[in-house]
Each structure stands twice: as C-alpha cells, then as structure tokens.
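Whiteboard transcription, Tuesday session. T.W. wrote the structure tokens on the left side:
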C-alpha cells in the first residue's frame, strides 16, 4: 500500500516547531513532510527526518523554491501555512493545477493584506496574483468562519471550509495559579509591537482610570521597534510608573506565568490577531476586551464565551469566569484538535 504524502510549507515562525512535534507524535510521520523556510524560531526546531529547513543564503532560497515545485507536484495534499510568501504565490499562480490539493491555513495577516493600499505596479500585480490563487484554492482551514466569509467576499474563494484550531498555541492549557492577595489590577494591552495593536488608542481609553491602583503591561518584544518606542513614550507620559513595557523576549513558560498574573486584557486589533493570548487568558477565567466588529468577537459570541467590548469600557471590574473556562477547555482541547487534524489529513 502506497503511503500518502502530505507536504507542509511554512516559514519557521513560533507556531511551527510545536506544530511539527504534535504531528510527528500523534500521526504517521512517514506521511508528512515539512519544507520550512528560515525564520525566527529555527532554534526551536528538533531534528526529524521529515523536516527540510532552508538556509539563509541566496542560493538556499533559490533551492527552496526549486524543491517547493518538485515536492508540491509529488504531494497528495499541500498544507500552506499562511500565504505571506509572495514567491510561493507567484509559483502557484502559474501552476493552477496544484491549487485543488492546497489547504490554506489562514493566519490573519495573509487574509487582511487585502485591506492594504497598493501604490506601485509591482504591488498591484502581486495582489492580482494573490486573488488568482486564493479564488482557486481547494481548501480553507481555520476555526473562524468569519475569516472564511471574508476570503469569499474579498477574493472570491470557493474552497471547502475545514474547521481546525490550526496550532498548539490555541489549545487550552491548565495551570495551577498561585493564590495572590492583592488590590492592584494588572492590565495587559496588546500582544506585540505590531501597529495593528492600536496601542495608543487603547491606552487612551484607560486614561479615566489612571489614578486607580493599576499596572499596565504592554508586550513589545517583537514587531516594529520604532513603533514600540512611540508606544513607550506615550504610555510613560500618560501613566508614569504604572506603565510597564515588556521589551525582552520571554521563554514560553515565563510568558504563561505572566499571563496568569493578568486581571484584564485589552486587544484593540481591527482584525483576527493575538488568538493564542486571548484563548489562554479566557481559559484562565480572565476578563478580555475585544473590538466587536472582529471575526474573533463573533466567534466567541457564537460559542457563548463572554468577552467585553473595548468601545464600552465603564469600569475595571474583573472576576473569574468559570463559564468561560469550561467552554474554552472543551472546545480548545487537545482531543478536539487531534480529531480535526485527522479529518483534515484523511479526507
């Protein structure tokens, strides 16, 4: 019996090494091959015979795309982890016969790139190619139906929708939290130094509470550092010592401990983003505020998860929501994730 071949194509972002470990642990690794571009999480990759990591030299990048073409033709299924690689999009646009067996893991930025202004001819051509590719993809993978609706509306996507949690960062994690007797309210604003966090607008909404016993933590360790400097300058000016920018990378376990200390989180993104943070915080029973027009807001509302509307902040009351914990625990479980991947790989 011939072993089916499932090719995973990705840049080595922080989500990818844990994803590969999960696949190799829970599925037949002989059926899966990972063609990985050099990225920020290279050091977290563990050696496995089914992983091919591209180097950072120009020759390595050229070889990566040659291997991509060869391996995509040999594969039974192609899992595209984001469509941010424009070279890959260009290749797929001239090989449309591959698109029916492609499964697009929708990350967010690759979908909402539709909203970016195109000025140069090159930018307009690349967006035209993205439209050609997305409209013909055979499969769309996410757990946010709202993102699938946007892909259909913006790009004419016709692919089959597969509900899947996508990455282990989205799974419920149980923690034994230390009991802390405190009055101060710990607040998190945003999850990175990406301008899409709209930090300054979010901080402005907290100004009425600046004289309360609060501490505002703002993760800024990765993203645009010039933007981070602007956020830090404004935050210090408005909140003084109550503003705590986090500019150093934290090991995963340390970051989880940090999240466990948060009482209220404000995510002012206008698109799907920071879902790992959001799910972890809600799974801990924390109070989370989102923009009500986002696809993640509607997703949580449909699941019965209580989230606050960032446009309607009237107080800084926070309480542990046991209802939210149970919903997150059941839906974002490792078992559910494994079942979803099984259906994705076996269909």
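and on the right, the sequence the group agreed on:
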């Amino acid at each position: 019996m011939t072993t089916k071949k499932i090719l995973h194509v990705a840049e080595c972002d922080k989500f990818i090494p844990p994803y590969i470990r999960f696949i190799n642990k829970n599925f037949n690794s002989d059926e899966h091959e990972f063609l990985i571009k050099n990225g920020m999480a290279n050091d977290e990759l563990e050696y496995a015979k089914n992983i091919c990591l591209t180097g950072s030299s120009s020759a390595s990048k050229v070889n990566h795309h040659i291997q991509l073409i060869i391996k995509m033709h040999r594969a039974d299924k192609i899992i595209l982890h984001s469509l941010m690689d424009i070279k890959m999009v260009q290749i797929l646009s001239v090989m449309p016969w591959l698109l029916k067996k492609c499964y697009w893991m929708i990350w967010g930025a690759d979908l909402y790139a539709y909203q970016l202004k195109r000025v140069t001819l090159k930018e307009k051509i690349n967006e035209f190619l993205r439209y050609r590719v997305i409209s013909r993809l055979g499969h769309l993978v996410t757990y946010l139906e709202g993102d699938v609706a946007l892909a259909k509306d913006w790009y004419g996507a016709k692919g089959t929708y597969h509900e899947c949690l996508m990455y282990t960062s989205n799974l419920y994690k149980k923690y034994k939290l230390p009991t802390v007797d405190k009055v101060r309210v710990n607040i998190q604003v945003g999850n990175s130094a990406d301008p899409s966090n709209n930090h300054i607008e979010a901080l402005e909404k907290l100004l009425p509470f600046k004289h309360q016993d609060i501490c505002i933590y703002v993760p800024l360790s990765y993203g645009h550092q010039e933007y981070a400097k602007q956020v830090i300058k404004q935050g210090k000016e408005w909140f003084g010592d109550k503003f705590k920018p986090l500019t150093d990378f934290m090991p995963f376990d340390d970051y989880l401990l940090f999240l466990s200390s948060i009482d209220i989180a404000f995510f002012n993104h206008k698109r799907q983003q920071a879902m790992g943070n959001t799910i972890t915080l809600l799974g801990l029973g924390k109070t989370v505020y989102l923009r009500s027009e986002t696809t993640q807001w509607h997703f949580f509302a449909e699941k019965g998860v209580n989230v606050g509307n960032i446009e309607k902040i009237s107080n800084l009351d926070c309480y542990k929501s046991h209802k939210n914990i149970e919903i997150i625990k059941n839906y974002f479980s490792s078992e559910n994730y494994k079942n979803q991947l099984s259906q994705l790989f076996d269909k």
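Someone added at the bottom: Residues 99 and 143 are 21 Å apart (CA to CA).
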